[in-house]
Amino acid sequence: MKYLFILLILIVASYADDLSTLLNSYKHDSGLSKITKKEEAGIIDIYTRQDLEDMQAKTFEDVLRILPGFHMTRTSNNIVSIQKPTTSNVQFTSIRFYVNDHDMSSTSFGSAALIWGELPIEYIDHIEVYKGASSIEFGNETGSIILKLYTKTAQRDNGGKLRILADNYGSSNVDTYLASTLNKFSYFAYANINNIHKKEYTNTYKDQKYNLKSNRSGHNLYANLQYEKWLLELGSYHKESDNFLGLGIHKTPTDGGLNADHHYMHLSKKFNNDIKLQFSYDNLSYSRTYIDPNGIKVANAPIINDYNIKFDDEIFSTTLEKKIKLKKHSFLIGGFYKKKKFKEHAYLSDTMYKYNYNGNSSNAIDMYSLYAEYIYNFNQTTKIIASVKEDIYNYQKDIDSKDELSSKLGFIKYIDDFHIKAFITSNYVPTNMIQLYNPDNIPYKSNPNLDNMHLNIGTCSLNYKKDKHNIKFIIAHNILKNIIMYDPKTLYGYKNSSQTIKYTRYDFKYTYLFDMYNKFAFDIFTGSNSKDLKSSPKYGSILQLFSKYKMFNIYNEITYKNNYEFLGISVNHSINYTASIKYHYSKDLSFGLRAENIFDNSYAQVYKGLNYAIPVTDQKVWFNLEYLF
Amino acid sequence: MVQFGVSILKKIIFLLLIATVLFSSDLKTEQKIYKLIIHALLPNKKDIKVWSDTKSKENLLRGIDDIVYVSSPTKANFVLLSKDKKTNKDVIKFVTNIQLLEAQQNNVVGGFFWQKGRPNILFLRRNLKEHNITLPESMQEYIEDEI
Fold this sequence. Notes:
The complex is a heterodimer. In chain A, 8% of the residues lie in helices and 58% in strands. Chain A is mainly β. In chain A, the strands form eight sheets. Chain A has a 22-stranded antiparallel beta barrel. The longest helix of chain A is centred in the first third of the chain and has 28 residues, at 2-29. Chain A starts with a helix and ends with a strand. Chain B is α/β, with parallel strands linked by helices. Chain B has a single domain, classed as Rossmann fold. Chain B is built from five helices and seven strands, in the order H-H-E-H-E-E-E-H-E-E-H-E. A seven-stranded mixed sheet of chain B has the order 2-1-3-4-5-6-7. In chain B, strand 4, helix 4 and strand 5 (110-115) form a beta-alpha-beta unit. In chain B, helix 1 (2-23) runs antiparallel to helix 2 (29-41). Classes of the chains: A mainly beta, B alpha/beta.
């Protein structure tokens, strides 16, 4: 009896920790990504809330940088972009960027992903990235890379938070949010203001030095109001940035920049019987000024020095969806209508005002789409997915109506510790307005012959998960037809190529989970294309180590890219080492440091017109303060 | 002496229950937490009868093996509330969200809820006292005088 009592006392002694462990375990097991992820949609990479917090991620860039299978880069006019190994930037039209159910669409650019790449993400709970997808499951416009960002919820984040970030370049980034629920009503409101300074580079032309600046500033506002099954979301993102190299022939900018705004509202209502109705409105404005004293080449104009261009988009959208779940069969049937308006205005001139052009163009699309997905569950370990989507584009003028069919077949199977996923997708990349109305093509005229690019994707992943080990191998094969290329010698600039490009990507990932706080992840990927293009590194690798020691969260990250040569410039191997540490002074107050690109050896991008490659990531140290109230 | 023996016996029963929870892996973490809370609040009850006002929590409680789910709050000695609902004053009430805990702070013994992005457990000292509940030493850190 005495020994039994001592044993039980020992259990009690350890119990306090165990209840705390149970709470932590509950937090870990209840991640919202477990609810939102759609296995049937494609191959997924998930960045959980815990991952983002441990990484001390500030903006979406911090996630894109470690996205397996891609290199994150920036374009010559300072837009964050991604590249598949060996190829140049992925077309923005094939990337769908979502915040919850809202697709950040754009009439001018196809997708507003081009301005959202540096989005401050403190209001984001978790991020899902679907590759080789068709987007049918998400009931919106077509894309092959789906970036789904899910916001924090009032139900879980009752209270508020203040986060202040500052770096050694003098940058600042402040986030705050408030959330509350009351009976059937809840709200979540978020605000960010940022002023980011980046390393300045120079370019010398005719003994004159030109500064290549890439600073940016802006704000991000988001709010949602929920009443029973109604959800209203409001978002407003403002971004101002330098032009970096700009568009000049010799990359010698003296002024200019981007001024972009994207405001949106999204109303959704879930009815009984799994019916969902959504309305949304987007207003996007994108204004650029390029000033280069040594000339900017525009297709049908003499050399100019001052190039001002503005795009205004308005998008109205209505979506209706119904889900039906039977014992072995699941159906998703839906349709949407979108009105996508487009306006373009440009003012071009040379220094002496001998030449100037003031032009406008506009158009609008009525887009109708019907889609359906069917899942047959053979049993608990096997399922087959079939989905189809028909899109109809009716242009207000100049361009003939088009219709496109997308389809997908998928297979998911669990065999003991193995998990197999395979998808075949027949898809297309919608042609955006700046391709149909090439702004470089003066005077403005439409390009009625330009057709959509077609894309067939075969993807297969094999996953082995046992105990603490998780091994994943992915192979993806793309066939691109009808590729849209830029050829300044042709009448319209953009043209369809008769060539077919094949691309194959391989990705191997190993994860070891020591426990819920300590994790090791290693990823190595490569790709090859049938045209022998070598615009970016062929190999990439990511190593992450998440650790916890007492009140400290420690994070280590290494991204590796192999050497490559492009436009006659050789770029060495790069090893970008980032480390962060966060001290939890209390449950509500923490302090952190994040050192980025510690070896000052990050992936460098080659640009046409510049005789050296510029690193994508700066060497920086961020100080981070987080306070929950 | 008899009182001392009963007290020791109570502790042993409670400790055995904890041991059962620790070694039972078939329950979900949330169920394990509720099982611990219920047994800590009702350490002497042989047949614990529970009730909840939402279907999801009903399903959760039904999955806990050594308690009985009853069809009415009047038959229960532990009630788990997610809505602002009037129930028998004598029954032990526990809530699932912070708003209800604030609204019902004179009636409920505590809550298990999400706040500031993390799950929290909180017991109200004065309401525990009203029900003559003494929580084990290991749960003292979750007792607060006010919300």
